[in-house]
Amino acid sequence: MLSLSDSNCPYYTNFIAHDMAEINQQAVDHISSLGSEWSSLIAESSIGDLCSYLDWAANNSVALTGLPNIGDATHYCQNVYSIEVTKTNLGFDSSTGHIMSSEFLSKLNELIDISQSPSRAEGLHPHELPLGFINFQTLNVDILHAFAMATLDWVQEGSTLPASSNLIFEIGTDGIVKAFHNDEEYTPMGCNMYNPCTVETFQKRLKAMISSQNVSDVCSGASDLILQ
Q1: How far apart are alpha carbons 209 and 195 in whole angstroms?
Q2: 34 and 60 both lie in a single domain
């Protein structure tokens, strides 16, 4: 799923509920301690929405006034709250057999097949136009981060990504795969950084990580579903 959230996956919501409750409460306690004005704001909206607004203002150089300790609140949201939320989302993906990233991995594998098909009429996907450029947009950077961790070597989970982050795969007609994360080249997962990454090697890794479960069924399934 390129858009995994409370609205389309109850299993996701239930899985992270305990951790998110703790993260949210810690954020509420900290920011409320900065002044009564913050307590009033939190009472009117969620701590997640408040932190998103402070993060937006900081990233767009919007000067906020009328509240005490705005710098402290912004720092906490960006350097504590956001990182903990990211860790929770990435933990969900790794603990559930890549439920968050599995459909992207499957789609990427399919597009690689298309790119290597010599004839659209006789190839694997006869109704596809010649593959030139495909663009996807995730719901948030945490989902993109999960995709990057599942497909690239040396991507770490200890920080958040900038809002403008990107993940790019170049599939050459020579069967070589190149990967870029925020314009920096990375080694595709399963490949060796000292040798060109071949389609065969990368696809073998992708197929090993694609969940055998139907993601839609998991997201709407019973609360006692156990993922193996």
Answers
A1: 22
A2: yes
